[in-house]
Amino acid sequence: MNKKSKVILLPCDSYREELIYTNLKKGLELLGGLDSLIKKEEKILLKPNLLKKAEVEKAVITHPAVVGAFGRILREEGYGNIILGDSCGTGSTSKVIRGTGMDTALEKLGIPAVDFSEGVHVSYPQGIQAKEFIIPKELEESDCVISLCKMKTHALERITGAVKNSYGFVYGLNKAKGHTRYPSADSFARMLVDLNRYVKPRLYVMDGITAMEGNGPGSGDPVKMGVLLMSKDPVALDSVFSSLIHLKPQMVPTNYHGEKMGIGVWKEEDIVLLTPDGEISLKEAVKVYGNPSFHVDRRPVRRGIWERMAEALNIFQKKPYIEDNLCIRCGVCVNSCPVPGKAVNFKNGKGKPPVYDYKKCIRCFCCQEMCPKKAIKVK
User: How far apart, in whole angstroms, are the C-alpha atoms of residue 245 and residue 363?
Assistant: First the structure.
């Protein structure tokens, strides 16, 4: 009989530091304690979601209070060798966290926020989708990774949570190249699973106190969810996240492929859900903590002959488009496009919004992720 995956659900209605600290400590106890996860002498890398520079209230990045509370627990438990870093969508770790409060919290704890200095080519022959990665030198030098992810929607994968957070382990511009190498939701998800298999984060902590719905992961809307989630199984954690927003877990490519490729489980019967008050059924958790009106793509993927024909003809597919009245002509979308020759450009001059060449567009939605003014939507 397979051992069930344990997911910890911690009700948490605000970002008060002491409340988060207390909840995280309880969650770690329910998982068996930090000593069961990390040895004192190990080099620890904390990896939050630092997509881009944004106001903390917009729910783009992992909240500084969650990062600070977890760092505080590590320090109090006697862990000395800790750094924090992420390969951000735009900017560096130090630039993205500057002025958010995360910078001052880390400084107080003596935890350096590192800007990844160089990429290291690593071979992964046992990979199913990806046989190699370019990862930061600092990651390769670490013994233990803790993933501090954010509860958000995602245009390509429906949600970005525990599994997707590991894409920040791909170094620099290689993240953009990854979208051209793995352009479909399924191939990209399998690559992400391989990446998690290679990095093997010890623990995944999800900030779902305020989540992002709608046009995520960078241009959506903050929405109260009031939970912290923790697990050693990223698929189980993302499955609980999916259920709380009334999205079938198997509809998330990283969940579906994650289970098939062996990094976790998404089925309800394979998950034990614990709260500080004891075990709870997923059905009860959804009833108490779920949000049926959460704005996320719940449409099924159909693979009939008409859908395959539409895909071949490049019609009736999700596409990014620019709302002219919101666009400030900054060019971030053009710069973030990973396609050689660019699928979006200033064809009509910089006095007008950029224009898409949908024949080139691979639907990676990097442009939509990086737009600073929420001017790019997906339809």
Answer: 24
Which of 40, 23, 19 lies closest to 31 in space, CA to CA? 23
CA 218/CA 3 separation, integer angstroms:
36
The rounded distance, in Å, linking the Cα atoms of 155 and 379 is 10
- Average pLDDT over the chain reads 95
End-to-end CA distance of the chain: 44
275: which 2 tokens?
């709260």
CATH 3.40.50.11440 positions along the chain are: 5-289
CATH topology for 305-378 is Alpha-Beta Plaits (3.30.70)
> Which segments of the chain does DSSP mark as H helices, in order?
17-30, 64-76, 93-97, 102-109, 137-140, 162-165, 174-181, 185-199, 234-244, 253-260, 282-289, 305-312, 332-336, 366-370
Could you give the count of Cα atoms lying within 13 Å of 282 in the half-sphere of its Cβ? 22
Instruction: Give per-residue pLDDT as tens, 223-255.
Output: 999 999 999 999 999 999 999 999 999 999 999
pLDDT digits (tens, 9 = 90+) for 310-366: 555 555 578 999 999 999 999 999 999 999 999 999 999 999 999 999 999 999 999
| CATH code, 5-289 | 3.40.50.11440
Report in angstroms the alpha-carbon separations of 298 from 75, 252, 341, 348.
41, 9, 33, 36
Distance (Å, whole) CA 104 – CA 97: 9
φ and ψ at residue 82, rounded to 5 degrees: -130, 135
Cis previous bond, 222, omega within 30: no
CA 368, CA 250: separation in Å to the nearest integer?
25
Whole-number Å distance between alpha carbons of 248 and 228: 20
